């Protein structure tokens, strides 16, 4: 079965004024749709057809560059839409907050480290909060559409929060001001979803 | 030495409708300027403080390389534009393009394809190799062909900031526009130098 462009749980304008409707529409209906179509084309007729995206990414070094780029793009954007919500913002609760405080010192220290990872990623890429195999939380960033699920990643684990810092994610509204985009992201984070991913 | 934002040989609105004034206001006025400011800050009290930009591009690493090469690349890119550019090169460059690519149309198609398929942020280059032959190269992020011993004579920025305000996800449309504003006389001069 081919991969399908996931529907958003909210309208394109629902994250306004933090992320504008036009950016959301192009990002989802053009960029994410492009990765989805290109991923399907890249796996068509190969033994990857029918495999889960997680399986494909876990062994991505064995596959074509098109599978790496578009498989990453497919997965990353799906995670990105889900970890945002019009009712987002604030702080996580419970176990996740405790784990963040344990591994980063405080929520503010985590926020600073994650924002810095996003601001200093040179070129196109993503910033991540990752739960490693031993349960420890770390912040990392990856180039282009790579992610921590990939066997090629320097820091491996389960991504539980991701921020897209490709210029297409913010250029229509923020242009060169990536730090302003990073600061509005904190107003839309769907911590319930991040907690769910942390507990899984 | 202090690096400075170069003056461009055209007004920012003059490349319209191919590249908008708004795009250039950010691309030249903000991005290019930021790379220059960052470079000047980073080289202070390092061995690159008095180095030429070309030496910085060839020999530095990390933040100095990223900012230094982006200064070089953007200057090289912006300088080779001209309102109402000529459609094709002439003379020795035209002959060299035909020798290496078969025809100007083939070259244009290969260069455009390199631009469309570069994944993520980067640059496409027309370079002269050590044997004097022309080739097309792609470099990612701040990459520059001088690092590998090639002489660049034309470049196209395919970072999304180069076109997102004008054509959004449609990078091929930006690439198509690019061919209308090239200052081929300057590219010929670079080739013959």
Features:
heterodimer; A: 200 residues; mainly alpha; 3-stranded antiparallel beta sheet; 3 strands; 46% helix; B: 193 residues
Describe the structure in your own words.
The complex is a heterodimer of chains A (200) and B (193). Chain A is mostly helical. In chain A, 46% of the residues lie in helices and 10% in strands. Chain A contains 8 helices and 3 strands, in the order αααααβββααα. Chain A has helices at 21-43, 53-58, 65-82, 94-104, 107-120, 171-174, 178-185, 191-199; strands at residues 125-131, 137-143, 158-164. In chain A, strands 2-1-3 form a 3-stranded antiparallel beta sheet. Chain A is globular and about 50 Å long. Chain A starts with 20 loop residues before the first helix and ends with a helix. The mean pLDDT of chain A is 97. Chain B has 193 residues and is mainly alpha-helical. Chain B contains 8 helices and 3 strands. The mean pLDDT of chain B is 97. Chains A and B meet through α1 of A and α1 of B.
List the strand order in the largest sheet of chain B. 2-1-3
By DSSP (H or I, 4+ residues per run), the number of helices of chain B equals 8
From the N-terminal CA to the C-terminal CA of chain A, the straight-line distance is 25 Å
Structural class of chain B: mainly alpha
Low-confidence stretches of chain B: none
Q: In a nutshell, what does this entry contain?
A:
The complex is a heterodimer of chains A (200) and B (193). Helices cover 46% and strands 10% of the residues of chain A.
């Amino acid at each position: 079965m081919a991969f399908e462009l996931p529907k958003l749980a909210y309208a394109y304008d629902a994250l306004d004024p933090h992320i504008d409707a036009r950016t959301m529409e192009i990002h989802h209906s053009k960029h994410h749709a492009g990765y989805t179509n290109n991923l399907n084309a890249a796996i068509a007729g190969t033994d990857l057809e029918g495999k889960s995206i997680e399986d494909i990414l876990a062994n991505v070094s064995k596959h074509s560059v098109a599978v790496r780029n578009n498989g990453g793009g497919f997965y990353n954007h799906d995670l990105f839409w889900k970890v945002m919500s019009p009712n987002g913002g604030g702080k996580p609760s419970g176990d996740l907050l405790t784990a963040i405080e344990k591994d980063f010192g405080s929520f503010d220290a985590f926020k600073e480290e994650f924002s810095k990872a996003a601001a200093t990623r040179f070129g196109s890429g993503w910033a991540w909060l990752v739960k490693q195999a031993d349960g420890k939380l770390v912040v990392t960033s990856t180039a282009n559409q790579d992610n921590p699920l990939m066997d090629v990643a320097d820091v491996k684990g389960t991504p539980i929060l991701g921020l897209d810092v490709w210029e297409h994610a913010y250029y229509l509204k923020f242009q060169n001001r990536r730090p302003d985009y990073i600061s509005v992201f904190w107003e839309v984070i769907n911590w319930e979803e991040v907690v769910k991913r942390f507990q899984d | 030495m202090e690096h400075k934002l170069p003056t461009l040989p055209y007004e920012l609105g003059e490349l319209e409708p191919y590249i908008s004034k708004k795009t250039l206001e950010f691309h030249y006025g903000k991005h290019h300027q930021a790379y220059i400011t960052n470079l000047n800050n980073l080289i202070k009290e390092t061995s690159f403080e008095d180095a030429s930009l070309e030496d910085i591009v060839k020999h530095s690493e990390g933040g100095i390389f990223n900012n230094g090469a982006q200064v070089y690349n953007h200057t090289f890119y912006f300088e080779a534009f001209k309102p109402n550019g000529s459609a094709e090169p002439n003379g020795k460059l035209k002959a060299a393009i035909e020798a290496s690519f078969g025809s100007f149309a083939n070259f244009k198609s290969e260069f455009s394809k390199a631009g469309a398929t570069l994944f993520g942020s980067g640059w496409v280059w027309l370079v002269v190799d050590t044997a004097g032959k022309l080739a097309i190269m792609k470099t990612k992020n701040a990459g520059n062909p001088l690092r590998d011993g090639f002489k660049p004579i034309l470049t196209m920025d395919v970072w999304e900031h180069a076109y997102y305000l004008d054509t959004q996800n449609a990078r091929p449309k930006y690439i198509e526009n690019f061919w209308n504003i090239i200052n081929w006389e300057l590219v010929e001069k670079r080739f013959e130098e």
